[in-house]
Design brief:
Length: 649
């Protein structure tokens, strides 16, 4: 069942509010707000429970297509009618984006000053300034680091998507105007070309520069441009109600299917987002012809109002989640906290929409808009600048608290070989130095492979095993696939090079495998041990080190700040004990050598050491030992493990 799209008063796109002076009127569609509600709901659930809805971030991509559809449609239509005005266009963008955003930034700045340490608060202020100038995505791109502070210390991290949209709004009108003369017929084709190029670039960046693929406009352009192209798609093929209904259902199926089925290992972002984006476009295009029962269902009153407030809900949800985690020293949101967080997000989101968005987007004159928004801009900019000038107000903390907390998130807290042997995921196999697998005259070769946890132990092994030449092949964040097939992924390619090609050509005496052990591939380990044994290579696995729910230096600092010495023991991960037990049993059954790191860092009561006898911390984050920690662990292992004693003495 479907009905033609009904007439409606002239309205500002996406607001649902009458606008007597609308420059480019469109018919209000409640189904689009319903779609917004689904998108923002998916994002919020993903940020609260990432393991339950790992593809919930696709909600942002659905937003991108909607923005491209609405804003692109306005630009193309107004240019075609020779009525485009940069002044009017950007005044509408200011109404839509800035007032609610600036209020959120100011409120978050005040609240963030309580839990964040000076360098974190300073970084927050810098991210805020970049956000109000529309470049926070670029800021976070250049701030990204595998060992940098966790996202839970970045209350404005979610503004990266606003940066993408604002940059799109900057370039799209320029492109359309440039083609609006004699090349007007090329607008549609040119946009299609940019979509094709952007998708290819996104796929390439996903392999060579995944951080850039996530944060930067060239890799995301195609998502917004699909929305703009959808406004120009011929609609004659949708004239039949049954076809229109089928298209709308297909669009919803593609979106929902993507939200449910896409997994991080599928390569995100990138071409894997195509079904969700195409599905969004199909839903929007079919709804522009007639309202099917799918569109009417999407436009039910609760969903429509949630969609109207979706921008403010998006603005507020992430700072609330981050500050909750900071106040309660947790990386996860438990069931008991979920409802209060959702209620507060709803209250602030709808309050922001009703009391800030609506007044600024209704009858306020351009002069009033610029004066009031300018005032908010000046206030928020001044507040952020004061934070930066005062270096995050360090006087809020004691000297010892600052000393401990300052260790958190430092890059390079463990030493590295003289060659490029430890690769971030943004590198390629060509950047790996073959000398990392070289031999040293008079020394036995041990090959160390794994993720950043292997890298952190390299220094301890190299410093304390003088008879051994430690070869290494490491990729940070590498979840080793022990099928050891070179499939184009950096991690798998390097592991194949080290554990297959190198072992076949120049077998080491021992292959040391260690990682964070998020997954224990029992079959893969057993097969690896069998294959190495045939080559005369001994497999030595080092189990998981103790890890904590938040960085250890921060826990130590907070234990002083809150006068709670039990914080360390209360925040240890429980997963590691089960993993250690699984590896012990597998070692007994399979015959490889196993060293339990927990045995040397924890007592029988499962209380673990985080500092040496001189008070020096052994960690620089929640699960990586620093140089002191690596030496501490390896020396304790050498004192009792025969394989290590032989190599050391």
């Amino acid at each position: 069942m479907s009905t033609p799209l009904p007439e409606a008063p002239e309205q500002v796109v996406g607001t649902g509010l009458p606008s007597p002076s609308a420059v480019h009127p469109v018919k209000y569609r409640g189904d689009i707000d319903g779609l917004r509600a689904i998108a923002v709901g998916a994002v919020i659930l993903y940020h609260m429970f990432p393991s339950r809805l790992p593809a919930g971030g696709i909600g942002v991509d659905i937003f991108f297509v909607i923005s491209g559809y609405l804003v692109g449609g306005i630009v193309i239509a107004s240019v075609a009618a020779n009525r485009f005005s940069f002044r009017d266009f950007y005044l509408r963008r200011i109404r839509r984006i800035l007032p609610a955003f600036l209020v959120m930034v100011m409120c978050t700045s005040v609240l963030a000053a309580v839990p964040l340490y000076p360098w974190e608060l300073t970084s927050f202020a810098k991210s805020g300034l970049s956000a109000i100038f529309g470049i926070s995505n670029i800021f976070f791109y250049y701030s990204a680091d595998y060992f940098a502070a966790q996202s839970s210390t970045f209350p404005l991290l979610h503004t990266w998507s606003l940066g993408i949209e604002e940059q799109f709004y900057l370039f799209l009108p320029i492109i359309i105007l440039a083609l609006a003369g004699k090349m007007k017929k090329w607008i549609f084709r040119f946009l299609l070309l940019t979509i094709f190029i952007s998708i290819l670039f996104s796929a390439f960046e996903l392999q060579s520069n995944p951080i850039g693929a996530f944060y930067l406009l060239p890799s995301r352009w195609w998502e917004l441009a699909i929305g703009a192209v959808a406004t120009q798609t011929p609609k004659r093929w949708l004239s039949q109600p049954s076809i229109c209904l089928a298209v709308s259902m297909a669009g919803v199926a593609l979106m929902v299917g993507s939200l449910i089925l896409v997994q991080p290992e599928h390569g995100f972002p990138g071409p894997v987002l195509l079904p969700a984006c195409i599905g969004t476009a199909l839903f929007l295009v079919s709804g522009s012809v007639r309202l099917t029962m799918v569109h009417r269902l999407m436009a039910v009153t609760p969903a429509r109002y949630a969609g109207l407030a979706s921008y403010s809900l998006y603005l507020w949800h992430w700072p609330i989640i981050v500050l909750y985690k900071q106040f309660y020293l947790t990386e996860r949101i438990g069931p008991s906290a979920a409802l209060p967080i959702l209620l507060l997000t709803t209250l602030l989101g709808f309050g922001s929409w009703y009391f800030i968005e609506r007044p600024f987007r209704s009858k306020m004159s351009p002069t009033q808009l610029l004066i009031r928004t300018g005032g908010l801009f000046a206030l928020s900019g001044s507040l952020l600048s004061v934070i930066i000038i005062n270096h995050g107000f360090p006087d809020r903390f004691s000297a010892e608290t600052l000393r401990l907390a300052s260790i958190t998130g430092r890059t390079g807290q463990f030493a590295a070989p003289p060659y490029h042997c430890f690769l971030p995921v943004s590198d390629s196999l060509a950047q790996y130095d073959h000398r990392c697998l070289g031999s040293v005259s008079g020394k036995s070769n041990w090959l160390l492979v794994g993720d950043s946890h292997a890298a952190m132990l390299w220094n301890g092994l190299a410093d304390n095993l003088p008879k051994i030449n430690i070869q290494s092949a490491v990729v940070f964040g590498c979840e080793i696939n022990l099928t050891l097939k070179a499939d184009g992924q950096l991690c798998n390619n390097l592991m194949h090079k080290a554990m297959v090609e190198h072992v076949n050509e120049r077998p080491p005496a021992v292959l040391v495998l260690t990682s964070r052990w998020l997954i224990v591939d029992k079959t893969g380990i057993s097969n690896l041990n069998s294959r190495l044994s045939k080559k005369g290579v001994r497999l030595l696995i080092i189990g998981p080190t103790p890890e904590y729910t938040i960085p250890v230096p921060r826990l130590m600092a907070e234990s002083i700040r809150r006068n709670d010495p039990n914080l360390i023991d209360e925040n240890i991960s429980q997963r590691i004990w089960q993993t250690d037990s699984e590896l012990k049993k597998l070692s007994t059954a399979t015959g490889f050598s196993y060293i339990s790191a927990l045995k040397y860092m924890c007592n029988l009561q499962k209380k673990c050491t985080v500092a040496d006898k001189n008070g020096n911390l052994l960690y620089f984050d929640q699960n990586h030992l620093n140089k002191t920690g690596a030496n501490y662990l390896v020396r304790r292992i050498i004192s009792q493990e025969a394989i290590m004693k032989t190599a050391a003495y």
